[in-house]
Amino acid sequence: MPTTRLATSNDLPAWAIVVACILAAASLVLLVIEMRRRERGGIGILVTGVLALGALALAVMRPVRIAARESVVGARVVVLADTSRSMALASEGGRTRQKTRDEVVAALSKAAPDARVLELGFADGPPKPLANATGETARGLRSDLGSAIRALAAMPEERPSAVVVVSDGRLDEPQEDAPKPVLAELGNAIHAPIHTIATTRNELPDASVRRVANATAAVAHVPLPLRVDIGCSGGLACEKLTVTAKELREDGPPALLASGIADVKDGKASVDLTVTLDRAGVRILEVGIESPTGDAIPENDRRLITLNVARERVRVLHVAGQPTNDVRALRQWLKSDASVDVVAFFILRTPADTPGASQEDLALIPFPVDELFSVHLPSFDAVVLQDFDAQPYGLERHLPALARYVRAGGGLIMVGGPNSFVAGGYAGTPLGEVLPVSLDGAPGATAADTAPFVPAWTEPGRSAPVLGPLRAILGDELPSMPGANVLGDVRPGGVVLWTHPTRATKSGAPMPVLAIGDEGDGRSIALGIDGGWLFEFSELGARTAGRGHGALWDGLLGWLMRDPRFEPAQVDLPEGCIADVPPTLRIRTAGRAGKGETVVLDVTRLDKSGTAPVHVEKPLGEGDAPLEIALPALPTGGYSARLRLGSGPTTRRDFACEAGGDEWADSRPDPERLRALAAATGGTFAFADDVRAIRLPKPTVVSAERHVVPVAPPWTWTLLAATLLGAHWFMRRRGGLS
Amino acid sequence: MRRSYLVVVFMLTVVGLALLIPQPARAFGDAGGFDPRILLTGSQTNAARPSAPGRWSWELVQRTSAPARLRPSLVHASDATITDGPFLYWSGDAAVPALTSAEIAGLRRFFALGGVMLVDDAGVSNEGAPGAFGTSARREIARVLPDSAPITIGADHVVFRTFYLLRRAEGRIAGPKTLEAIVRGGSAQVIFSSHDLGGALARGPTGMWEQPVIPGGDVQRERAIRLAVNVAMYVLCSNYKDDQVHAPFLMRRRALSPHSEP
């Protein structure tokens, strides 16, 4: 657009113009004062004086005419709209905060038609285009405004002239009550004022579990203190609320671990609970309160906490029916591993034995079967029953408890021998139901095959990580065994790793010798031989320095304890799981890509209620890139994802889907934080119904072409000033002034 | 008539139920049982007390739940099969010649796998002074395990409480109260007995004890057999009786025991 305007000479600094104007104004004031002493001709003196002063000023400024082609460029304004989950909560009028937010963003664009408005959404990490963010509704797991602004400042594009934040104010960063310098630092980072608009004014009547904090890492069998912060807002009547901590388990209803009473004062309360988790690995804890009457958001009355429970040491109960070379070898391996805490009970004397000595001369203590398998059983991570007959020692009455222990997450290994499996009376018992193989409970069933044999590898056995260390030492070679327990077909969920080379089950399949399987939350192993010691003491053992025995048991116990080294795959949820939002599972496999295997994924609810199981089958790709599987939206609850590669063993990952997570834990809006942020960064604050109060920057004028021409030559202004000064001097003298 | 009928029915029922119980296969487990393998070196053809290992196994099976081979095997130190089991019994009543390099290598492989050996001096004097075998065997073991030296192990060692609570070591002769052992990796891998333990165990085909036990007679023989059982249990269970759950119990029992030390 072509424009023409007047200006002062380019060679004058701004201060010179200011000085000239000041001197002219001062001279005019002196002239008015002097006018009181005049004798006559007042108007003439004044007119000539004003004209002379004006001419003098023009002589200094020497006006020029500027002809230009100019355009108006609107200021760059970045709107950062909160896309966290808290925006899905309600605000005034029953609308969601997200809807109010979207209306504000639209109103801002209308209020500043000249501005170049960039609409971004912020939640966790760098901001994203708002179009995408709104399309996915409010689903961010955090409200990290600080990271968004810093990412914005680091962008190579044009720096914004202003930033407008539209949020409910419940932010992760800057934190509540952040000091002014911290808030100002955000403005300094972007070199622009931060204006803020609060979507919400009022608090909803809501009681919630705001925070569950554990001061220390979760370790199995070690009491874990939890601090539970309770909030009550929006005028809801809360006085005493019962707080409970439960563990979600697959083998039954949630198990109550601890409870307490929250005495709510000034809308807040804290309760300290102590829970002890018996099983290591990923565990889901439900911490909840009783919903008070009138609670507008009952979804945040319980939190689902995912704890990765570690172990200080693996506690193993080793029970052996008789001392043998195999018992010796296993005991020495267990005792040699500093990370294993072994409690051992070996039957050294049966009622048929005649030691020929009084009890005082015997170093024997009673086998505390009742105490072990009732009181202390949950404290063990794994139970090894080696060549142990359940009947003579009263273990039969504890077999249901032992089966429950496995389903609740315990590990069980039954090792062969003349007193194991069928001969031990386990067929048809609850314990037999948690073994990975079936046992023949028919009268007169054959218990053992005493013919020497060399176990045969199965295809899953060759590829299973659990036997990876053993194969690394022995390859395909295995020592000859003096006999085997007769085992039945593998049960659903079990995987056979070794078979008998000649013997078959009733179904005609090769008889399992080593099988592993998942049962409920736990795992079990059936090893139908008592010749494990031959991995050490044999020609093969001597050739391999006996390392095969340790490698075998390292894998078996490690698999039982879900050691990641022995899992066929690693499963995680990179973005967590929010209820009713489709989650994505990421699967990493070690060295399995390109083998044409199929990933079979089953997702079930831990409490087995309501939601239908999810079953997905997907071919494993060629490359090593993680495989991502999108799941359908899941309701609130704990879930178990079981993954099987081909016909190999399964790997399991438990996870929880929360309705709102941290974002819903505290539903109160925080407009004061937004107000403080605006004040600290030179911006303005407004509520959503007063968007026009936000002072957005004016547009910038950009000249494309410019011509500067003096209005008159400089000497003209000097001559004019001299002439008018002379006329003024004449009028002063005539009027009686000096 | 009616009563005898009921008895017959009862007996048939008992027999029937007995037949229904799954039968364990003893041989399946015996392969992993205690085997007091006789170690031969040089031109040696048998143990100093050939019947002792068999009797040792028999006593173990009778007194404890441990399975054992009633016909123990013989193995030469240079034979590859020396590493086929975790225990060796080396006894003699005469000096042994210097071990060959093959014998040393075989024994080193055996010890490297964690094997345990009992060196039993059958030529010990009645006063317990080591005989020629004991002296020469110590010398040769020092060549096999040059980095280890024997130490004295007394009643506080787990060998003395693996099955029986024993206060001292005894064999055919009373000898010293203690044993000696080379301890490697926390375990006694070579146990030296200067008591002719095999002499107390040896029993002929007629059922007669082959050697008189002095000075304690049958009572001392019983204690010697108990020591042999304990050694076998140590081989099979290692330091099981040192476990935390056992230690306080056994210490209390030992303190309360009315038996005086022989």
From TrEMBL, chain A:
The chain crosses the membrane at residues 12-31, 43-61. InterPro entries: Class_I_gatase-like. Keywords: Membrane, Transmembrane, Transmembrane helix. The keyword Protease does not apply. This is Glutamine amidotransferase domain-containing protein. It comes from Pendulispora brunnea.
UniProtKB/TrEMBL annotation, chain B:
It holds the Pfam family DUF4159. Residues 42-236 form the DUF4159 domain. This is DUF4159 domain-containing protein. The lineage of its organism: Bacteria, Pseudomonadati, Myxococcota, Myxococcia, Myxococcales.
